[in-house]
Amino acid sequence: MQLNFIANTNVPSASGRLLPVLDPSDGQAFDELQRSNADDIDAAVRAARDCFDTVW
């Protein structure tokens, strides 16, 4: 399973929902991605802004 990478940390999506990654040759799921939503985007933007304002 792949997690979101926000603020230098791997985190699950706020929704807790997953999206399967399908192999196009046989249609079988071989991995899962986080089904991110607006809350995840807001968290990522806040983390990026904080990094820009403090570290850079």
Automatic annotation (TrEMBL):
MF terms in GO: oxidoreductase activity
Keyword Oxidoreductase on entry: yes
Domain of life of the source: Bacteria
Listed SUPFAM superfamilies: ALDH-like
Keyword annotations: Oxidoreductase
InterPro entries reported in the protein's UniProt record: Ald_DH/histidinol_DH, Ald_DH_N
Record-given protein name: Aldehyde dehydrogenase
